[in-house]
C-alpha cells in the first residue's frame, strides 16, 4: 500500500518532527509512506471571507497537483466522519482488498480545505470536534495509521 500524507505548511517543531519520524520508521514495514509538505499561502491576520476562499483555493490547487487520478483521497476536516481506530483499520483493509493501493490523507492549512479538495475527496475524516494545529494532526494521523496496520495484522498495541 502506498500512503501519502499531503499537508499545507512545513513542520518546524523539533518534538513533532521526532514523533513523526518515529511513526514513519514503524510504518515502513507495513506500507510506503510519503509525507508531502506544501507551502502555505501567505496572508494577513484579518482576512475577509473572499480572501479566505482565495487562500484556500490556492492551497487547494497545490494539494490537488500532488494527487493522481487513481488515488483514494481522505480529507481531514472538522466536519468529517468520526471513526474509531478499529473502523479506520477496517476501512484501510477494505481499500486494500478492493485494489485501492494508493491512498492520500489530506490536511489543510489553518483555514481548512478548499471546496475543490473536498469535492475530490472520496471520504472525510475527523478526529474530534476540537481544532488542532495541522502540524500536530500529522503526528496523530500517522499514529492512527500505524495502529490500523497493527489491528489489521492482529498484532498487540496498547488500548
From TrEMBL:
Residue sites binding S-adenosyl-L-methionine per the record: 76, 108, 127-132
Coiled coil: none
Taxonomic superkingdom: Bacteria
Chief place where the protein resides: cytoplasm
CDD domains tied to this protein: RlmH-like
Function text: Specifically methylates the pseudouridine at position 1915 (m3Psi1915) in 23S rRNA.
Official protein name in the record: Ribosomal RNA large subunit methyltransferase H
Taxonomic path: Bacteria, Bacillati, Bacillota, Bacilli, Bacillales
Gene that encodes it: rlmH
Amino acid at each position: 500500500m502506498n500512503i501519502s500524507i499531503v499537508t499545507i505548511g512545513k513542520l518546524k517543531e523539533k518534538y513533532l518532527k521526532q514523533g513523526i519520524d518515529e511513526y514513519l520508521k514503524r510504518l515502513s514495514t507495513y506500507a510506503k509512506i510519503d509525507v508531502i509538505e506544501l507551502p502555505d499561502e501567505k496572508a494577513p491576520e484579518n482576512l475577509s471571507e473572499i480572501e479566505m476562499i482565495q487562500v484556500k483555493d490556492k492551497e487547494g490547487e497545490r494539494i490537488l497537483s500532488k494527487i493522481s487520478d487513481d488515488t483514494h483521497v481522505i480529507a481531514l476536516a472538522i466536519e468529517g466522519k468520526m471513526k474509531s481506530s478499529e473502523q479506520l483499520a477496517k476501512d484501510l483493509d477494505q481499500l486494500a482488498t478492493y485494489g485501492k493501493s494508493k491512498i492520500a490523507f489530506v490536511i489543510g492549512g489553518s483555514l481548512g480545505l478548499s471546496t475543490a479538495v473536498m469535492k475530490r475527496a472520496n471520504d472525510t475524516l475527523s478526529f474530534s470536534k476540537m481544532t488542532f494545529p495541522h502540524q500536530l494532526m500529522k503526528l496523530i494521523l500517522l499514529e492512527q495509521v500505524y495502529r490500523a496496520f497493527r489491528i489489521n495484522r492482529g498484532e498487540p498495541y496498547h488500548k
